[in-house]
Design a protein that fits this description.
The chain is an alpha/beta fold and 555 residues long. It has 2 domains: 17-221 and 434-498, Rossmann fold; 222-426 and 506-529 and 538-545, 3-Layer(aba) Sandwich (Rossmann fold). Helix content is 45%, strand content 16%. The chain has helices at residues 5-11, 39-45, 62-71, 89-103, 117-121, 129-135, 154-167, 178-193, 222-243, 259-268, 276-281, 286-302, 316-319, 321-334, 338-341, 346-356, 359-367, 370-376, 393-410, 427-430, 436-454, 508-521, 539-542, 547-552, and strands spanning 25-32, 53-59, 76-82, 108-112, 124-126, 146-147, 169-176, 199-204, 247-252, 272-273, 308-313, 420-425, 460-465, 475-480, 485-490, 493-498. Strand 3 (76-82), helix 4 and strand 4 form a beta-alpha-beta unit. Helix 4 (89-103) packs across helix 21 and helix 12 packs across helix 19. The structure holds 1,6-di-O-phosphono-beta-D-fructofuranose. The site of 1,6-di-O-phosphono-beta-D-fructofuranose has 15 residues, from loops.
Length: 555
């Protein structure tokens, strides 16, 4: 396979690791934990994995390393990539591989193919050194593929036991987001109840950045994805500032949470950045949002600036309170609804939906452009969520802003020009070559997972923290997944799930936006042009974590 010079150079990049992971480790157990909420229910559902202690890894003196190695019996591990791609997945797997081989060269790593379904259907491949070497420090999940099959039925878990027994697998590592790690925990609990001796370890993945909490400082992939989008936004801003004729409406992936939009705004300083969580807190309507945008457009136009940039988080629509009610009703209505699925054509589906909604939601549904209304009723993902990446909110906003400006123009209140272009950045960043931060972080997550497995742990997420410090000072360990759980309604039923982290309106990253956005919106130019991710050069250019992480840690 042909490679670019950068691909070739990155293949030999050796990820930087915390000192604690550079040799043999000792696991130190902290205090017992409890779930973030709904303690009684979670405890009842997870009798074996609830309340486990947080684990920290400490280095063992050199003299004890050899004796520890020789005690390790060989064992096999299976790994699954679950959900959307995120830069660094291959490095988690290479860290896992190197960690296993360092413990015992006879250890084997199997990759389950195509996501969780690989475990259920027994589709796997042994990952050898030559395969791993091809994928070191590369983006993508193509080493074994990913998928969104939900591991939740006992027959699936039992199939998993059979396959693991055939392959002599002692532990399964699930690399996924909040839903996949929730499933990892359910699986760990089930395997303990069955006493089948198979451990389950999770790893925190998602570009969305919403799998974070007191212990997990950031999910991997967020860093690279945001830097990739921020580069593109910066380039667009430079173009806008050169041509001076377009307003760019840029929707950014991130599903529900607005972390990606916020981080990109902190890196590039656009004229407007909408934050879904704020829209919800202020109980804003679609019209309120449009008015806010129009005000900035008119103001800049009055100073001859008929151009600008607006960042729109992917999940915005779900956070407009009336829309949220509508989407919830649609989620409940459409979950496993064969009658709806069997209807022929968009019109029949539209009529069916209208006949089932409450009056207020029905009115809102009818008021939306037909295309957007249809997008709201498209297939749900396997977790029952509306697929927000398919809802073209940026086009909806352009349409509404255009209408409003036409009214103002007719009244003589807008004298400028409005020409808008729409963009959606998501897939462009999910498989980018991992930044040094993600390459290092992910590799350490993989190595940490091997130590948790070797120590017989299950129901844990591999943990690497202290991330704003140089990588040598990062702290590795494990956090019980039950600690992050609460009860939420999914597919119409209450379920134990990992609590999603939305943008904290009292947090430092949002406060920074709040304090600076008037200046960024004003008829002046404050854009920042971040440029492409750099892999070689000074640490302040190449190894910086996200602005979100720095601000959250008081930097
Ligand atoms: P994960 O949460 O599985 O990591 O996926 C994140 C994401 O990229 C979201 O930002 C986006 O809404 C969604 O996946 C898109 O899903 P798909 O890959 O199925 O189009």
């Amino acid at each position: 396979m042909q490679k670019s010079p950068l691909q070739i150079a990155r293949q030999s990049y050796q990820p930087k690791m915390p000192v604690a992971l550079q040799g043999a480790v000792r696991l130190v157990e902290g205090e017992k934990t409890q779930s973030v909420a709904d303690q009684e229910e979670i405890k009842k559902l997870f009798p074996n994995t609830y309340g486990l202690p947080v684990i920290t890894m400490e280095p063992v003196a050199e003299s004890k390393v050899e004796s520890q190695k020789s005690k390790e019996e060989p064992f096999n591990v299976g790994v699954i990539l679950s959900g959307g791609q995120a830069p660094g997945g291959h490095n988690v797997i290479s860290g896992l591989f190197d960690g296993l081989k360092a413990l015992n060269p006879n250890n084997k790593l199997y990759g389950f193919l195509g996501g969780p379904s690989g475990l259920i259907d027994g589709k796997y491949q042994e990952l050898t050194a030559s395969i791993i070497d091809e994928y070191r420090n590369t983006g993508g999940f193509d080493i074994i593929g990913s998928g969104r099959t939900k591991l939740e039925e006992t027959w699936q878990f039992d199939n998993g036991i059979e396959i693991c027994k055939q392959l002599g697998i002692k532990a399964v590592v699930i690399i996924g987001g909040d839903d996949s790690n929730t499933n990892a925990c359910v699986l760990a609990e089930y395997y303990l109840q069955k006493k089948c001796g198979i451990q389950v370890i999770g790893c925190p993945k998602t570009i969305d950045g919403d799998l974070k909490n007191e212990m997990i400082e950031t999910s991997f992939g967020f860093d690279t994805a945001c830097k990739t989008y921020a580069e593109l936004i910066g380039n667009i801003q430079r173009d806008a500032n050169s041509a001076k004729k377009y307003w760019h409406f840029i929707r950014l992936m991130g599903r529900s949470a607005s972390h990606i939009a916020l981080e990109c705004a902190l890196q590039s300083q656009p004229n407007i950045c909408l934050i879904s969580e704020e829209v919800e807190a202020k109980r804003m309507t679609l019209n309120d949002i449009v008015e806010e945008i129009v005000k900035v457009i008119v103001d800049r136009s009055n100073h001859g600036m008929n151009f600008g940039t607006i960042l729109i988080p992917e999940g915005l629509i779900e956070f407009i309170p009336a829309m949220r009610v509508l989407i919830q009703e649609l989620n409940d209505l459409l979950a496993n609804n064969e009658e709806f699925a069997g209807l022929d054509g968009d019109d029949a589906k539209r009529e069916y939906v209208k006949s089932k909604l409450t009056t207020a939601s029905c009115e809102l549904y009818r008021s939306l452009p037909k295309g957007i209304a249809r997008q709201l009723t498209l297939d749900r993902d396997p977790h029952g969520n509306v697929m927000v990446s398919q809802i073209e909110t940026e086009k909806l906003l352009i349409e509404m802003v255009q209408k409003r400006l036409a009214v103002l123009k007719a009244n003589g209140e807008f004298k400028g020009k409005f020409s808008a272009l729409n963009h959606f950045f998501g897939y462009e960043g999910r498989c980018a070559m991992p930044s040094n931060f993600d390459a290092d972080y992910c590799y350490s997550i993989g190595v940490t997972a091997t130590h948790l497995i070797a120590a017989g742990k299950t129901g844990y997420m591999s943990l690497v923290r202290n991330l704003t410090k140089p990588s040598s000072e990062w702290i590795a360990g494990g956090v019980p997944i039950t600690m992050m759980m609460n009860m939420e309604k999914r597919n119409g039923k209450m379920k134990p799930v990992i609590q999603k982290a939305l943008v904290d309106l009292n947090g430092a990253p949002f406060k920074y936006l709040q304090d600076h956005r008037a200046k960024w919106a004003a008829p002046s130019t404050n854009y920042i042009y971040p440029g492409p991710i750099q892999y070689y050069g000074p640490a302040e250019v190449c190894d910086q974590p996200t602005r979100t992480l720095l601000l959250e840690r008081g930097k």
